[in-house]
Write a structure and sequence with these properties.
With 146 residues, the chain is α+β, with helices and mostly antiparallel strands. Helix content is 18%, strand content 39%. It has a 5-stranded mixed barrel.
Length: 146
């Protein structure tokens, strides 16, 4: 009986004193694909205006995990894009839409990734409603997952 009590007590102490685990929500490309958007012209320039579904609104500001293909954007600024599709089929080059790619802003300086390197990342989700110079979805404080 004493051994069971000691194990139970030790387990409770570890549980109470252990640092809290940061839960990450799984973000899928299907969830991002539910974003609808319209095109408007401002000052003669076409811009996309997104309408995010409620599930994404609920995830905004939370840590999420997602996998996709890396596309280098700016090595000096440590900025990359993550795409549902490889570069040749992504939003920038193929027939996919802006809901198939997101901006990644890494927490720490990264060594250069290979274009189309498949990775899983975690970061805090930001929904871009107003800045036409960035993508609809932005992950900040990004780290490789796993």
């Amino acid at each position: 009986m004493q051994i069971k009590f000691n194990r139970l007590f030790l387990g409770m102490v570890i549980f109470v004193l252990a640092p809290p685990l940061q839960a990450q929500e799984k973000l899928t490309w299907a969830m991002l694909g539910a974003t609808q958007y319209s095109t408007v012209y401002e000052n003669g320039v076409m811009q996309y205006k997104p309408r995010f579904p409620g599930k994404l609104e609920d995830l905004e500001g939370m840590d999420v995990v997602i996998a996709g293909y890396i596309i280098p954007v700016d090595f000096e600024e440590n900025t990359y894009a993550l795409s549902l599709n490889p570069f040749s089929n992504c939003f920038f080059c193929g027939g996919a839409g802006p809901e198939t790619v997101m901006t990644l802003r890494f927490k720490n300086k990264q060594s250069r990734f290979l274009t189309d390197q498949y990775v899983m990342v975690t970061g805090r989700l930001v929904l871009n409603r107003n800045r036409p110079d960035d993508l609809f979805f932005i992950l900040v404080n990004v780290e490789l997952h796993g």
